[in-house]
Amino acid sequence: MSDQSFHPPLRTLMGPGPSDVPPRVLEALGRPTIGHLDPAFVDLMDEIKGLLQYAYQTESALTMPISAPGSAGMEACFVNLVEPGDKVIVCQNGVFGGRMKENVERCGGEAVMVMDDWGKPVDPGKVDDALKAHPDASILAFVHAETSTGARSDAKTLAELARKHDCLSIVDAVTSLAGSELRVDDWGIDAIYSGTQKCLSCVPGISPVSFGERAQQRIANRSQRVQSWFLDMNLIMAYWGGSAKRAYHHTAPVNAMYALHESLLMLKEEGLENAWARHQHNHLALRAGLEAMGLNFIVDEASRLPQLNAVTIPAGADDAAVRTRLLQEHHLEIGAGLGDLAGKVWRIGLMGYASRVENITLCLGALDAVLSDMGADIKPGVALPAAEKVLAGA
Amino acid sequence: MSDQSFHPPLRTLMGPGPSDVPPRVLEALGRPTIGHLDPAFVDLMDEIKGLLQYAYQTESALTMPISAPGSAGMEACFVNLVEPGDKVIVCQNGVFGGRMKENVERCGGEAVMVMDDWGKPVDPGKVDDALKAHPDASILAFVHAETSTGARSDAKTLAELARKHDCLSIVDAVTSLAGSELRVDDWGIDAIYSGTQKCLSCVPGISPVSFGERAQQRIANRSQRVQSWFLDMNLIMAYWGGSAKRAYHHTAPVNAMYALHESLLMLKEEGLENAWARHQHNHLALRAGLEAMGLNFIVDEASRLPQLNAVTIPAGADDAAVRTRLLQEHHLEIGAGLGDLAGKVWRIGLMGYASRVENITLCLGALDAVLSDMGADIKPGVALPAAEKVLAGA
């Protein structure tokens, strides 16, 4: 057990999250703590709610950060909306659909799985079939942006299918929020959760959620209490709600809220559409470099997430050794494959503040250097010029 | 919705938590984010576990921070240890025993309540009676330090009673950890949780927990899955556990862990017994001042928590108006009464870094000034000299 303060190594974070946190957000994070019932903090909570409504493109008043990571945000959606015996159609095309199934079952619900291959988007045709085959289903749950593969599913179409069949939709937007087009109200999404550590470029640990009117009604009309006290939206609403008097529920992570506010402010300053466009533009540059080098994307272009680039590991490259060298020599973190893709792919994030030109240059340069040195089967020396062409708008 | 960065007002935090966070901890909090699977972060996790073992005085390997506030730490204890149909003896002498009851019931358990008046410690005689009357009970749950009243219960005796009756003990140490004597292994406590924002003087948002061997066995031998995926210790262990390979569970709140590490390091530098003694010494000084002024403690001396001083509001003082003036004029936060004590008491915290001489002086000086100005029924001008006598060791 050391008796020294911890000084983290400086990293460039291009894995699946956490992503690089900008100095502005870190500075906000470290400001002096105030009480969670201080009038100044209550004002801050209102501002955060408004900024989250902007980020999600929703007018729902039940839009707020859960005081815990994205997986608690996921659980908040399921424990509030699923009651024992409920049937839920769960789409799985990667790791996180599997976690949704776990959540449904732990709530006493029945999960009907719609399976798609890892790397493919959720197939709306299969979902329609499942909804027709199970007219008693009450919820459709799917992942908008699969962090394990980099595939984007068509959230608009899937949410429409849910409505057509009188189901609520629960949407995982952990990796999509602020990185890809997402319009909660226009698309008719009923419940959605995300994380702070991806395209919002905030520190990890908080999960913004939003519940639309139909979801709120479902919660209000539950026949049983929510099984989690900590995640019971009826109680959380009394603290985060719009009334003048805030009821104490739990002690909010005050400093993390400073950071979230600052990161949301940066998003608003840039403009949501501009942020989406930046992610796409930088993705095209990175893609040009990776493909020139000979690395292949595992997701088809039409459903590829700009903020998460999953590419196959070339022959002659030792997965772990490459990532270790990138980390130790270049202080660059990229992500390993998860589950079935472990050892087969790398996941390169261009999320939020990490989606910037110098990161593309560092990543392509470092990969080129390490893979060439290792004698891997790549085309050396061509990645950076290829990316530069895209960046220059050629 | 503002478009300005949030700059918190500077406060002195002498409520029931969060308490003042020292600059060292805020500085650690704001250091650059690294990945939650970075080897440097994994080393940090090991150090935090070791430091938490020291703080709790336990050798249990299942000692770690839950990535959410204290109420999630409470829930982690209950969802992992209570199965549907289990009978749990729950002691209530304030707000938080009531929350324990909620937790038991939401896990499908049956809560047998042992009630004591607010402000009194839990009565071991009543607990013994309840354990005898319910030989089928499997758990005894109680609050060591009631944050709503400032009463300390005899955790050692209560944990012994639990063992005698073959029950596990679940102990709420949110306000006691690092402020009052607490020896998890010596006292035979089976499961315990706390918060970072009280006597650890860290930012709010994290809940250190520890499960002893008997509790671990109970978790391993469950007949049903834990109802919460996020709080399932079987899964959390695989991430925080001692094995070389850490299994991804959720993205840890990396920066909050920097801060927790720093605050635990400060505790170790001071020494746990020294920290307990400092809390007691400063409490005696504050007490001398408050009593000289004419304010009365609601808890008997024998069970009074040094870190949370609940005193009656004097005649002629408007509760809310006093707290508002303290906050606006003196930038001092003290706590209101909760539940049945709302409007009747103030809760003055001397927790962790907030337990220092200048805070005592500020608090007594500001109270004296505001209450005198308001014409409240106090003895003016005597509080500070009375406190000074104790501080000077007279």
How would you describe the overall organization of this protein?
The structure is a homodimer of 394-residue chains. Chain A is of the alpha/beta class. Chain A has 2 domains: 247 residues, Aspartate Aminotransferase, domain 2; 120 residues, Alpha-Beta Complex (Aspartate Aminotransferase, domain 1). Helix content of chain A is 42%, strand content 14%. Chain A is built from 14 helices and 13 strands. In chain A, strands 2-10-9-8-5-3-4 form a 7-stranded mixed β-sheet, with helices on both faces. In chain A, a hairpin with an 8-residue loop joins strand 12 and strand 13. In chain A, helix 2 crosses helix 10 and helix 11 packs antiparallel against helix 14. The longest helix of chain A is centred in the last third of the chain and has 22 residues. Chain A is globular and about 65 Å long. The termini of chain A are far apart. The mean pLDDT of chain A is 96. Chains A and B meet through helix 1, helix 2, helix 3, helix 4 and helix 10 of A and helix 1, helix 2, helix 3, helix 4 and helix 10 of B.
Q: Compute the number of structural domains of chain A.
A: 2
Just give the CATH class of the largest domain in chain A.
Alpha Beta
Ends apart, CA distance between termini of chain A: 55 Å
CATH topology of the largest domain in chain A: Aspartate Aminotransferase, domain 2
Rg of chain A is: 21 Å
CATH architecture of the largest domain in chain A: 3-Layer(aba) Sandwich
In CATH terms, the superfamily of the largest domain in chain A is: Type I PLP-dependent aspartate aminotransferase-like (Major domain)
How much helicity do the residues of chain A have? Answer: 40-55%
* Largest beta sheet: strand ordering of chain A: 2-10-9-8-5-3-4
Gross geometry of chain A: globular
Contiguous uncertain segments of 5+ residues of chain A: none
> How would a crystallographer describe the biggest sheet of chain A?
7 strands, mixed
* Number of alpha- plus pi-helical segments of chain A: 14
Q: What is the typical, i.e. mean, pLDDT of chain A? A: 96
Which class best fits the helix and strand makeup of chain A? alpha/beta
Largest interface: A-B, 83 and 83 residues
Oligomer: homodimer
Q: Can you count the beta strands of chain A?
A: 13
* Helix and strand sequence of chain A: EHHEHEHEHEEEHEHEEHHHHEHEEHH
